[in-house]
Amino acid sequence: MGGYLIWSTRVMLGIVLLVSVIAKLRGRREFADFTSWLDQLAVVPRHLVRPAAVTMAAAEATAAALLAFPGTAAAGLAATAAVVAVFAASMALISRRGITAPCRCFGVSTRPMGPAHLVRDIVLALLVVG
Description:
Elements: H1 2-25, H2 28-41, H3 49-67, H4 73-97, H5 115-129
């Protein structure tokens, strides 16, 4: 039974990561919009926004790929934990600063970022740790 739980957790986390990375990379316009959004959040210095956007997408894609195979599942879970930890820390910083920009985590959204997004990241982190 534990094997099925671990497998289903890997699948769910992999899908979440894939949806997120595909939303960012499905076209030049989407990536430019994501990069612009990241710049507006002022989480990283302006000159590092594009490298941070590329790194974020690459980290999500790498973690998803590692989760896909039993031999790399542990590394995938560790990578996912790191990605989710960065997201949660960033969300906490954004919330603390009072920034209410819409979330672009999974593409275009009109819902402003807030405590619900931080809770989502914490739940994902608990799934990874569990």
